[in-house]
Amino acid sequence: MIQMSYILKIVSAALLLLFIADAAFSREVSKPAAQETIQKGDDITTFVIETKSTKEKLDWRAYENYVNGVISEQMKDYFNAARFYNDALQKYPESYEIRLSLAECYFRMQKFNDALKSLESISPEDVEVYSLRGLCYRSLGKNLEAKKAYLKVVEFDTLNQNAFGFLSSEYRRLNQLDSLVWTYKHLVQIDTENPQFWSELGQLQNQQGKYEHAKGSFEKSLNLVQGRENLLAYIGLAASYRGLNQPDTATALYKEAIQLDPNNSYLNRELASHYFELDSTSLALQYAEKLTRLEPNNISAKRYLALMYVRADSIFQAETHFKDLVNAGDFEPGNYFYLGRIAIMKQDYETAREYLTILTQLSDTLVDGWLDLGFVYRNQNDTAKSLNVYNSGLQFVKYKEDSVRLMFAVGATLERTNKVKEASQTFEKLLKLDPGHSQALNYLGYMLADRGEKLNYAHDLIKKALDLSPENAAYIDSYGWVMYRLGKIDSAVTYLEKAVAMQSDPIIFDHLGDAYKAMGKMEDARIWWQKALELEPTNDTIREKLNE
User: Fold this and answer.
1) Going by CATH, does the domain composed of 1-123 fall within 1.25.40.10?
2) What SS3 state is found at 20?
3) What is the pLDDT of residues 149-185, one digit of tens each?
4) In degrees, to the nearest 5, what angle opens at C-alpha 329 toward C-alphas 360 and 269?
5) Could you tell me the end-to-end alpha-carbon distance of the chain, in angstroms, rounded to an integer?
6) CB burial readout 240-270, b (16+ within 10 A) else e
7) pLDDT in tens, 13-47
C-alpha cells in the first residue's frame, strides 16, 4: 500500500517551497563571503547564491511542477503527473519528496522497473522507500528482493504489520519454520488482541516441538475468544498437551471441542489419531469412519480410514477399503502397497505379485515395492525373477539407504542358492558403500565361518558387527560359531551359552551342542541337539547327531 496521501503531498509541496527559501537563506548565512543577487526573468524568479567556489541555483518552478504533478495524480492522470514530477526533478534533482512521488506515480502506472529506478537515487532510504521498493518487487514476482526490502522496513519500524505480513507469507512458502515463528512473535506484539495470530503462533510452536510455548500461545488466544469461533485453538492446545505427554488433559480438550462442532472434519481426524495413540482402537475407528461420512467424496479420508484398519490389524476391513479405492480409480501407490502386503500376509502370492508389480510401475523409487515383489518371487521359488526385481530396483532408487537394503537382499538370495562367490562380492560392495552395516558384516562373516573360509577375516567382520550391536543374539551366536571354527572352544561355549539364554533358535541350540561335543561333553551336547530338533523336527542332520 502506498503510504503518502495526496494531502501529505500538498503539505510536502508547501514544505518544499519553504525549504527552497530556507536553503538560500542558510547558504547565505553560512558563507559570509557570499554575494546575493536577485535576477528577474519574464516568468520566473531565481535566487543566485554566489561564493568564491560555487554558484548554485534553486528554482521556484520545481514547486510549481510538483504541485501540478500532485493535482494530476489526484485526478488519476498519471501520465501527466509523471511528466510534471520529472520536470520538477530537472530543477531540483536532490528532492526526496519529488523523487518518491515520481516512484509512486510509476507504481500506479504499473511501471515497476521505472519506479525502482527512481527510488535508486533517494537518500536517505527510509520506511517509505523500502516499503515502495518491496511493493514493486512483489509486483514483479521477485520475492527474494521483496523480502530483503521488507526486512529493512522492519529494521526502521518494528510495528509495521504489512511488512511482517508479507514476510510471514514468504517464510511459509519457503517452509522456513524458525523465521516464520519470528514474524508471528512480532505480529502478536503488534496486535495483542488478535486471537488468530496467537493461535497461528501456537500451531507453529507445536511444529517446532516447543509445546510449553505453544500452550501459552493457545491459552492467550482462548482468553480472547472462546467457543466455536476459535475451534482451532482448542485443537492446537490439545495437541500441545499430547506433545507434553498429558493425554488426559488433551482428551478433555478434544471432548470440549467436539461438543462445539461435532461435524468438523479436521477435529474428527485429530480425535481418530489421538485415540489410536491411546490404543483405543474402537474410538479411533469411530471418528475415522465418521470422517468419511462427513466427506463422502474425500478420497484422503477414505485412505485414512483404510490405514487405520491396517494399524488396528483389521486386515479384512482394510483390504475391502483399499480395494474400493482402487476400483474407484484412485491410483495412489499406497493403496497397492498395502494390498500387496495384505496378500503376502494371506500367503496369496499371485495376488500380491499383481498389486506389487503395479506399485513398482507407479512409484519406481519406492524401495519397499521392489523388496516386497522380490520376496513374493522368492516364495514362489523363482529365484531368478527375485534377483531380477532387486537389481531392477537398484536402477531406480535414489537414496544410499535404499540401495543398501536392495543389495543386502541380493546378497542373501545369492547365498541361499549357494552362489557364495557372487554373494560375497555383493556384500563386499555393500560394505564399501556402508562400512558400518552390522547386518551385512554379520551375514558375510557367518557365511564364511560356516564354510570354514577366511576364518580370521570372518572373525573380524563378526566382531565389528558385535561391537556395533553387543546385545544382538544372532551376532553373539555368530561370534561363538567363528570361535568354534577357529578351535577356541571354551570361548565359543561362553558366547553360545549367552546366545541361547537370549533367544530360542534351533541353529543356536545346534551350535551349542556341537561346541559341547568338541569339549567332550556329549550328554550336554545331546540336550541341546534335542532342543533344536524339537523346534525343527524335519532336520535330518540334527537327528543323525542324536543317533551317533
Assistant:
1) yes
2) helix
3) 999 999 999 999 999 999 999 999 999 999 999 999 9
4) 90
5) 96
6) bbbbeeeeeebbebbeebbeebeebeebbbb
7) 444 444 444 433 232 323 233 233 223 333 333 33
